[in-house]
Amino acid sequence: MRPPCSLPSRLIPLLSALGLLLGAWWTPLTHAADASAYATQGQCAGYPRVALTAPKGWCVGLVADARDGLLMPRRLLEVAPGRFWITDMGSWDLHRGRLLELNTAGQAGDKGRVRVLAKGLDRPHGLAKGPDGRIYIGEAGTIWRTPLAHIEREDVLRDLPSDGAHPLKELVFGRRGRFFLNMGSATDACRDGQQQQALPCPEAASPRPRAAVYEVHLGGPDFKLQVFRPFSLGLRNSLGLALTQDKTNGNERLWQAENSVDYSDDRLPAEELNELRRGTHHGWPYCVSSEAGRSLAARGYEKRAQCDKPDHQVPFAAWPAHVAPLQLLAVPPVPAGQAEQPWSDRLLAVWHGYRSQGHRIVAWRLGPDGRPTGERENIVSGWMAMPGLRPQGNPAGITLDSQGRLWVVEDRNRTVLVVAPDSAPVAQ
After folding, report:
1. What is the side-by-side strand order in the sheet with 171-173?
2. Residues facing residue 66 across a β-bridge
3. Does the residue 427 lie in any domain?
4. Is residue 80 part of a domain?
5. pTM > 0.90
6. Domain holding 393: CATH number?
7. Dist CA 307 CA 159 (whole Å)
């Protein structure tokens, strides 16, 4: 399989480099006039406090919102204390996205807190720091990287599929210059224009299949592309990817949060947490999961799919239908002698869905083998809409800062929130 083109920086089109990136360097945002959808009372870490449920002893503060020019933020990453980079899609239209920098000093709406680092991006989503110290950005059709000090775009992968239902790219770095990349399906359930569902599904069985997670190896003196190949198949849309460590042998485990096929049913099909291994097939579009995690033939494949065969990998866990997991984050244990935080040594999942089980951030403790264990814990919840108090939550991305606090972006609500120690609890 021929890998996508990997361009040295000298071949990046001049117009793109100058018009989209260098010309946008440190461009101040025009502030939106929208007032915050959240009512606030009191303070949380120096920011206006919002009425959301956090772990005991913690609170949620509103750091930035539409008044700062946020349009559709999807990921954030602390690049220096008090400085965050944000991928903002802008909308689902092509080339409306931006790479932003947020200075967390001040309050929402203060001028100069959010600046544009790059604009004209195509539905940017993924955001990660590589082992080479550069920041990697996932646009719909391209993965590129840049130094922190100034925007100097270098494409790592290009000509990735950017059409269809699931064009967004998520990436997570493992060891030795390897990262894993989402290549979402073009369709919901492999229906063609005549609503027919082929077996095998053409997009999942092509030489460069979609509905897959790929592994990418970078190396050599310039940390260039060495390997690009499918790792696991049958995965409709893998916007949640995370690596945990098996402390018993030092190996990594790769986890995927599956956004399953869209049924109108309230309880089917289940979303999934999958452990990925090289060559595993996880069912899409032929098989889905019940609430109990049992494999079922997907609608349209009832008489053709063989979901009980050994080559079909059942999920590690079944999650409620329609919770729409948009990110996974593996948090290591705190060093000896430091206080544990509510998310220490846990796997966190961002549930974006609008139905009752969604719009929350949840977690599971990690066992010594690196697998989630025990009961689900709510990290941020109570996000149902209450007029005059808060909108319905739509968390899209999370990260930890250098102090161990949890930061959240909401895409439709256009906010940045922080979950921080509560020094002044509000009376209930």
Report:
1. 171-173, 178-183, 212-219, 224-233
2. none
3. no
4. yes
5. yes
6. 2.120.10.30
7. 33
